[in-house]
Amino acid sequence: MVATSPASYPPPQKSARKSTVPRSPRSIRCVNIVVVGNSSVGKSWLSHRFAKPDEELDPNIAATLGHNTVSRDMTIEGQRLNVLVWDTAGSEQFRAITPSYYRRADGALLVYDITDTKSFEALPSWFADVRKYAKENVSVVIVGHKLDKESDRRISYQQGHRYAQEQDCPFFEASAATTAGVEDAFQALLKKVAQNTDVPPQPESIPLNIPQPPTGGCRC
Ligand SMILES: Nc1nc2c(ncn2[C@@H]2O[C@H](COP(=O)(O)OP(=O)(O)OP(=O)(O)O)[C@@H](O)[C@H]2O)c(=O)[nH]1
Ligand SMILES: [Mg+2]
């Protein structure tokens, strides 16, 4: 994973303006996805599983400090996307800097752990932050994570589904450990984002006289 500093994050953009730039088959659109939720719900594993499906997950993973980013190029709804996933720290000490990650997010994955009631009860507060700091038209998907730990389940599928319905969001249960539901959750979120024409596409080839962004970041 590539670590970048919060200071490098682009400035706020609250515009809900529709793009009039026509998409050519060679254009690629940069998409920022923020993954939020309580500490230890599995945001880093989930992000890594999505971005690098064939790589092993680190069983000794440490709590995220600030954030990590991972990326993956894919085609959704006929659009070529460069998906940059902002895997944020769930720990309370980093909560104050989390809003900076929302500002340019096109989509947010709100994650709780189906074996951890507190992480489910914290969803409204994460949701409130998304609504407060993200763009008006940000797409949101809710994920009940660690589906493989069925015997330790504390939050039923119905509870998660009901909450998501109340928020008018798609809902998935998933497990980074088994991969179940991971691709479905991200694809549903990216589909919503792709249908949203807020962000203009970027040309794939960048003229040599334009300064390049730091490596590891989005090509936007
Ligand atoms: N059984 C199971 N364990 C998981 C899964 N995903 C993550 N874990 C474990 O849960 C613990 C926390 O995972 P992380 O991905 O670091 O959690 P996080 O939400 O990123 O935590 P912070 O970075 O502190 O916010 C680790 O010990 C993982 O091994 C999963 O799908 N199933
Ligand atoms: Mg983490």
Q: Could you tell me the strand content as a percent range?
A: 15-25%
Terminal Cα span: 19 Å
Q: On the 0-100 scale, what is the average pLDDT? A: 84
CATH class annotation: Alpha Beta
Radius of gyration: 17 Å
Q: Can you tell me the number of structural domains?
A: 1
List the secondary-structure elements in sequence, H or E: EHEEHEHHEHEH
CATH fold annotation: Rossmann fold
- Distinct small molecules: guanosine-5'-triphosphate, magnesium ion
Instruction: Give the helix tally.
Output: 6
CATH homologous group name: P-loop containing nucleotide triphosphate hydrolases
Helix content range of the residues, please?
10-25%
User: Poorly predicted ranges (pLDDT <50, ≥5 residues)?
Assistant: 1-21, 201-217
Count of DSSP strands: 6
Structural class: alpha/beta
**What strand line-up does the widest sheet have?**
2-3-1-4-5-6
CATH architecture: 3-Layer(aba) Sandwich
Gross morphology is globular
Q: What does this protein structure show overall?
A:
InterPro entries: P-loop_NTPase, Rab, Small_GTP-bd, Small_GTPase. Pfam families: Ras (PF00071). Keywords: GTP-binding, Nucleotide-binding. Residues 1-23, 198-220 are annotated as: Disordered. One of its GO terms (molecular function) is GTPase activity. This protein has 220 residues and is of the alpha/beta class. It has a single domain (27-198), classed as Rossmann fold (3-Layer(aba) Sandwich). The protein contains six helices and six strands; from the N terminus they run βαββαβααβαβα. It has a six-stranded mixed sheet with strand order 2-3-1-4-5-6, with helices on both faces. Helix 5 (157-166) links the parallel strand 5 and strand 6. The longest helix has 14 residues, at 182-195. It is globular. Residues 43-44, 63-64, 87 line the site of magnesium ion.
